[in-house]
Amino acid sequence: MATTDKAESAKPQAEEVGWETKVRYFLNNDLVRSSPFWGIPFLLMGIAVYGGIGFNTAISLTDARGLTPPDYSLGNLDFEMYTQVLGSSAFISAAQNNLVLLIVFTTICLLLGLFLAILLDQGIRYNNTVQTIYLLPMALSFVITAQVWLWMYNYDFGVMNIITRAIGIGPVDWIGNPSIALGSVIFALIWQFSGYTMVVYLAGLRSLPDDQFEAAHVDGASTLKTYIRIIIPQMKEASVSAAVVLMVFALKAFTFLYALTGRYRPPNGTDILATLMVRQAFKLGKWAYSAAIATYLLILALGVIAPYLYYQYRQGSL
């Protein structure tokens, strides 16, 4: 009987000791001990990013316009602005331009960057000079790039029109002609970002062992076939990473387009969702309408990033 009482009295003590041990182990965890250093920045970033997304979504459900404060009462919250945006011809045109910019810009940057990386990997002459020339534009801001190409495209004394006059085509209104304005913008952005993809691919190529090249040469494969059948297929991860970065830049090319003209309306034929969103908000004062466009733009960005994160998760990188 006494033995039973002792055993029963020992149970709460064991449970108490076990609970204290768990708490002590939790407090000594590296993540918890380092929380004073990462906790405050994490909280501030959470408020700034996710709080901003939530605030934007709330505004998009109202009819806020001009200086009138938004009405957040439940009876006034609806998806009317999203319907208006989808029915707008300006939104459809901007979305189409965004899609063209995203696909053409990303594809050409990847192909050109891969081509340059292969040339550098083969040890061409003036290797470092070529690498510097193509990488330098990446260090420039959108504003500087826009101004440089604004001079290049100048109708009277721009370098591009000096070349067209020399070959007998005559001056071309690169920015003012709506049929070629978007192509001119894409060309300038390719000039800036092709060096980035070149570096990404070059890092991937130089991480591969030389044994693969030697084995292919022993089997009689030419250099071209070696790259096409053996090397390039191994650049999948580099291609995915570079493509995601390029597509995100394509979605937020507002700074470049704004710097071309200094106005909220970009050159005709180059309007994208970002420029349309800013124009509706800060020029026309349609805050709710602009917030709805921002939400659609966020969905597009998530559509680009989410598959990449899932791919990284499947590869075990997350």
From TrEMBL:
Transmembrane keyword on record: yes
Domain ABC transmembrane type-1: 95-310
Keyword list, A-Z: Cell membrane, Membrane, Transmembrane, Transmembrane helix, Transport
Subcellular location: Cell membrane
Signal peptide as annotated in the record: none
UniProt membrane topology term: Multi-pass membrane protein
Classification via InterPro entries: ABC_transporter_permease, MetI-like, MetI-like_sf
Membrane-crossing segments per the record: 37-59, 99-120, 132-152, 180-203, 238-260, 287-311
Cellular component terms per the entry's GO annotation: plasma membrane
Record-level GO BP terms: transmembrane transport
Record carries keyword Transferase: no
Record CDD domains: TM_PBP2
Similarity remark: Belongs to the binding-protein-dependent transport system permease family.
Protein name, entry field: ABC transporter permease
Species the sequence originates in: Haloarcula mannanilytica
Taxonomy of the source species: Archaea, Methanobacteriati, Methanobacteriota, Stenosarchaea group, Halobacteria
